[in-house]
Design brief:
CATH superfamily of one domain: Domain of unknown function DUF4159
Number of strands: 39
Helix content: 25-40%
Largest sheet: 7 strands, mixed
Shape: flat
Distance between the termini: 93 Å
CATH class of one domain: Alpha Beta
Length: 889
């Protein structure tokens, strides 16, 4: 479809016949010829001669020149203004909710093209977003010049909450009519779409443009397998299959895990299984869909999704002939779904990573163990103690116990005892400012025995739960950054039926959350700490954001409660968009509407530059024709003009040559796999390694380059890093021959099969298939005395992001290439350990050795570079004594 921004200019084409007549009667300029004047007398004849006319070729050139200028002035374009074929104002409604963020740039570019066509025609525009404004106000719009509307469009960003099309319909009803309406929809049915469509159709002609909606990532549910996190990816049902990847990130933005997921044709959701060891899982704070910058593709994780390591210990022999009386049975069953349980002695449990320690009727440790326990609590640990006969006996004897939040009365209280109840006592409602706030108290829960707290001024402040008669059931005291908690009854059914109720696991879950800084006593409101924007980036919350209630159902995300983290100090609770939106549905519009897409020929293509270029070309040809008619153009001049034009075109089309750039400096290279995340990691890792080599040695390396094995030469690079992925295809015969020649002439290829989910046999088979056409030497495990372990640093193993899974090099010491192996094969993800972000921070976590392991990985990289640059010179040092002996002779 071709249209014109200024169609009235086309009326000038009617002047072309007059121009034709004018050019025909105007003779060309006279040509001056030198000859003797007497020659004029010969052949003189009387008569009248007509003036010479413009040649037809020149006439056609000039007509075409004028026609091109007129057409260019009319503003021609393919798909002019998308749907702006009628006059009057334009009302542009844009869905700017969470679903539009995935392809926001394409949407804005489409809308900007639309407004550009409207601007050329001088029509006013009303721009309206359907998502509630970030300031908490009401959506509204008014007619403004198209230039101002384009500025407002450039500043528009997607919101991290759903759209409100009903409110947008009310704003549309207030606009003047008639007008042309265009609705840039996100493709998701979110209510109010029919109402908005009716309001827009009431203005005039309506066109609906639909983009690709984004995916939705709800927060994961509880998983019985502590090493697995099941994440659901949702979308509006589509015909095509999609393969995505879900990433797990820590607080520093490092990728801790990655799980691929495939949505089958027509499927609305699929499940990705992210497998991580408990140590890494507990560091997760964010899940997102790789490559999709949108709030809907992000799920934030707080302490509810962390499986805290919980230690269980009991005094004396915890086992009992009856499982129902075992001191740890009910604790184990209640905590297994939400925690990583460890059983043992207190000293042994504290030797490892531990968040919560629960002691079932056990006496307090003494001596060095007591000091170690006290230090652990002050660092943030939570000690939960349960009463029982042992603790009651200790209280009766009056022995000091520094691991109690309150002083205890001796003897305890039980049915039939000296301090007895006439009936068992039920539980009182939990205080609204305690950790158990919001939990319902079952009427059938009762306590028949307990240890009593000694009355004191601070007893009320330290009581988190109490019985119906007001005696404390759970007391607690803050110790440093941790908590000391006492449950005044047993952890089994010996003194109470609390352990048999559904309330018991909920109370224990709340207590385990204290170890991660969850809200303790005090504070029923959680102010916003960080909020997601429409592109899924965490930042400061907006001015309209308000605090979140600590108890009750989570509110729907919006300007007042944007998705993000809420809490006080180190306490954080995540509010997620995916938990409130539900399953996305395809947009349901009334029949008969004009619907267009954003793909293919939807973009406006202005033709004015092409007509102007044609006019310039016709003007040059007309000039050449005029010079030729006057005899001023010779063959040499014509050739010179053609050469000048050819050289100008060549200069504009010249590009940097790959080989020249690669050969100007020493640099590392990596093989481009076609997987964006893998290639980005390789480039970032080699760039960081190059900077590290320059900082720690005298070698200077330029920025690394990516290599296409089928098209680019590799002879310029001393080291070629080749990440091995499951979907790579083997190089062609020609590429394999180039790589074999590269290895024969001193090049080093580092193969890194770094997929942690791949078994060793599968990894070996994949590497063998990928290198089948290469002339590889026989390989053997890296000897402990190999030069690679001492080319710069002295190393015992060669870890990367993962531990050293074995490194293979050429078997023996070949005479070629100074005994340097042309191949190094590993599976530790070295590039992942080296990679840093724009601020120099590591991008990926390393396990299990942490930052110490990362430093070793840095040294491995430096040794690899030195091995590639300097060869086997370290091995030559064994000949140094013989050389010195010869010199002395």
């Amino acid at each position: 479809m071709i249209g014109f921004g200024l169609p009235w200019v086309l009326g000038l084409l009617a002047l072309l016949p007059g121009l034709w007549w004018l050019l025909r009667v105007v003779p060309p300029a006279p040509r001056k010829v030198r000859f003797p004047a007497v020659r004029l007398l010969f052949g003189l004849e009387a008569g009248e001669e007509a003036a010479a006319r413009t040649p037809p070729l020149v006439l056609m050139l000039r007509m075409l020149l004028v026609a091109c200028l007129i057409l260019a002035a009319a503003g021609p374009a393919i798909n002019p203004g998308q749907a702006t074929t009628s006059g009057g104002p334009l009302v542009l409604v844009v869905d700017d909710g969470w679903a539009a963020a995935a392809d926001w740039r394409r949407r804005v570019a489409w809308a900007d093209d639309l407004l550009a066509g409207v601007e050329r025609s001088g029509r006013p525009v009303a721009l309206l977003g359907t998502a509630p404004p970030a300031d908490g106000g009401v959506a509204s719009a008014s007619l403004v010049p198209a230039a101002r509307a384009r500025e407002a469009l450039a500043a528009l960003e997607p919101k991290p909450w759903p759209v409100d099309r009903a409110a947008a319909a009310r704003a549309v009803a207030a606009l003047p009519r008639p007008a042309q309406a265009v609705w840039l929809a996100d493709g998701i049915e979110d209510g109010g779409s029919a109402e908005l469509a009716r309001a827009l159709k009431g203005l005039g002609p309506l066109t609906v443009a639909e983009g690709r909606p984004g995916h939705l990532l709800p927060p994961p549910g509880d998983d019985a397998d502590p090493g697995r996190l099941s994440v659901t990816v949702r979308r509006a049902a589509a015909e095509a299959a999609e393969t995505l990847a879900v990433r797990g990130l820590d607080e520093a933005g490092r990728v801790l895990g990655r799980a691929p997921v495939t949505l089958a044709p027509g499927a609305a959701e699929a499940i990705a299984e992210l497998r991580l060891p408990p140590e890494l899982r507990n560091k997760l704070v964010r899940l997102d869909i790789e490559g999709e910058a949108a709030a809907g593709a992000v799920a934030l994780l707080d302490g509810r999704w962390r499986r805290r390591p919980v230690g269980l210990a009991a005094g004396g022999a915890s086992a009992s002939p009856s499982p129902l009386l075992d001191r740890l049975t009910y604790l184990t069953r209640a905590l297994e779904p939400v925690a990583e349980l460890r059983r043992g002695e207190v000293a042994d449990l504290l030797a490892g990573d531990l968040a919560v320690l629960m002691l079932a009727d056990a006496a307090a440790p003494r001596g060095a163990s007591a000091d170690k326990l006290q230090a652990w609590i002050e660092r943030g640990g939570v000690l939960v103690r349960f009463a029982g006969p042992t603790l009651a006996a200790v209280a009766q004897d009056g022995e000091p116990d520094r691991f109690l939040p309150v002083r205890l009365l001796g003897g305890g209280r039980m049915l039939g005892g000296a301090m007895s109840w006439s009936v068992a006592q039920g539980l009182a409602p939990f205080p609204p400012d305690g950790p158990f706030a919001g939990l319902a108290v079952p009427a059938d829960v009762s306590v028949s025995a307990q240890v009593l707290a000694e009355p004191s001024l601070e007893l009320a402040a330290r009581t988190w739960a109490q019985l119906a008669d007001g005696t404390p059931l759970v007391t607690a005291e803050r110790r440093g950054r941790g908590w000391l908690v006492l449950v005044h009854t047993t952890a089994n059914a010996e003194w109470s039926n609390l352990a048999l109720s559904g309330l018991f696991p909920e109370m224990l879950h709340r207590l385990t959350q204290l170890a991660e800084g969850m809200p303790g006593p005090g504070g029923g409101r959680l102010p916003p700490i960080e909020a997601l924007d429409g592109f899924g980036r965490l930042g400061a919350p907006g001015a309209a954001a308000i605090a979140l209630a600590a108890e009750g159902a989570a509110p729907s995300p919006g300007p007042r409660h944007p998705p993000g983290f809420y809490g006080v100090g180190g306490s954080r609770v995540a509010l997620n968009l995916g938990a409130a939106v539900g399953r996305p549905m395809v947009l349901d519009l009334p029949a008969g509407l004009r619907r267009v897409g954003l793909e293919g020929g939807g973009r406006e293509i202005p033709l004015a530059p092409y007509f102007l270029a044609a006019a310039v070309a016709f003007a040059i040809l007309d000039l050449l024709a005029a010079l030729a008619l006057r005899g001023l153009l010779r063959g040499g001049a014509a050739v010179s003009l053609v050469l000048i034009l050819a050289l100008a075109h060549s200069a504009r089309a010249a590009q940097d040559d790959f080989a020249i750039e690669a050969g100007l400096a020493t640099r590392l290279a990596y093989v481009r796999t076609g997987v964006a995340a893998v290639d980005a990691k390789s480039r970032s890792g080699l760039a960081a390694l190059s900077r590290l080599v320059a900082a720690r040695s005298t070698a200077t390396l330029a920025e690394p380059m990516g290599i296409d094995l089928e098209a680019d030469p590799v002879v310029f690079f001393p080291l070629l890093y080749w990440p091995v992925t499951a979907d790579q295809t083997p190089p062609s015969a020609a590429a394999a021959e180039r790589l074999s020649a590269y290895m024969r002439h001193g090049g080093l290829i580092v193969f890194d099969a770094a997929d942690p989910l791949m078994a060793a046999a599968e990894r070996a088979g994949l590497l063998a298939a990928l290198t089948r056409g290469l002339a590889l030497p026989p390989l053997a495990p890296l000897p402990v005395d190999h030069v690679l372990t001492r080319s710069f640093y002295l190393l015992k193993d060669l870890p990367g992001r993962a531990a050293d899974l074995g490194v293979w090099v050429e078997e023996g010491a070949a005479a070629a290439n100074d005994g340097v192996s042309p191949v190094v094969v590993g599976a530790s993800d070295w590039a992942g350990a080296w990679a840093t972000d724009g601020q120099g921070r590591p991008q990926f976590a390393v396990s299990p050795g942490g930052e110490r392991q990362r430093e070793i990985a840095y040294r491995v990289g430096i040794n690899l570079v030195m091995y590639a640059l300097t060869g086997n010179y370290k091995a030559d040092q064994v000949h140094l004594p013989a050389i010195l002996e010869r010199l002395r002779r």
